[in-house]
Amino acid sequence: MTKLHVRSGAESFFLPGNSTGILICHGFNGTPQSVRYLGEEFAARGYTVYAPRLTGHGTHVNEMEEATYLDWIDDLHEAYLLLKQTCHSIFVIGQSMGGALALHLATKETFDGVLTINAALSVPEYEVLANQVEPQFIMEGKPDIKDPEATEITYEQVPLKAVFQLLNIMKVVKQELPKVKCPSMLFVSPEDHVVPAQCTDDIYNSVAASHKEKVILPNSYHVASLDHDKDKIVEHAVNFIQSHTKNAIAAS
């Protein structure tokens, strides 16, 4: 398949820093643009940050239609391997479907910590489509962000086939949660119009992490990385990362 042009702002980004790496995964129908603020804030504190663009995102819906959840798993894994080349400690952060992908990867590789932002184990609006064969594309509403000034790069419609891939990865991750053993920080917006907040409770109750904590985002909707609580995410995440970095030494 011919590689399609990536929309301006939707590209993967890599911000070199110290030997603590932070891998950030965007969500379904999002792009690295949705997590760039977080990434730049982490980089400003000295960390090495990589946010890959998942296959079929930020280009054209036709490319998304051909993507599978295995592609998305591979995308994140390849990004992890790149970070591993220069980083001694690695943390993975995922928002929405990215949270599910982050949890999955945490069962396959060794991380110093996993952080999720409104991780998706269920998307009721999509689950009602599970047995449909049409329409080919599903119209998407405005991104679920409380801050009226925030914008997110998304498609106005998503392929039904891609929705099925999202349902597949969520089903897989639900079964894998007890295998997640690294320290976990779970951010959740009580008022989320896409993913039920109960998903984060289920993750908290199911992961086998010796250290796990839940952080409430009271002034954000689903895409919290772009919302009013984004600085709260940064500060809590940095404290978590500092306390769980190998040898508790800030790399220089």
Give a brief description.
It is built from eight helices and nine strands.
Tell me what you see in this structure.
The protein has 252 residues and is an alpha/beta fold. The chain has a single domain (13-248), classed as Rossmann fold (3-Layer(aba) Sandwich), CATH 3.40.50. It is built from eight helices and nine strands. It has helices at residues 36-44, 61-66, 69-84, 97-106, 124-127, 160-176, 198-206, 230-244; strands at residues 13-15, 20-25, 48-51, 89-95, 113-117, 137-139, 157-159, 184-188, 212-216. It has a seven-stranded mixed beta sheet, sandwiched between helices. It has a two-stranded antiparallel ribbon with strand order 6-7. Helix 4 (97-106) links the parallel strand 4 (89-95) and strand 5 (113-117). It is globular and about 50 Å long. 47% of the residues are buried.
Strands of the widest sheet, in order across it, are 1-3-2-4-5-8-9
Which architecture per CATH?
A: 3-Layer(aba) Sandwich
- Spans of 5+ residues with little confidence (pLDDT < 50)? 247-252
Residue share in β-strands: 15-25%
**Overall strand count:** 9
The rounded Rg comes to 17 Å
Task: Examine the coordinates and then state which fold CATH places here, giving the name of the CATH topology.
Answer: Rossmann fold
CATH class: Alpha Beta
What fraction, in percent, of the residue positions are helical? 25-40%
Report the CATH superfamily: Alpha/Beta hydrolase fold, catalytic domain
Number of helix segments?
8
- How far apart, in Å, are the first and last alpha carbons? 42 Å
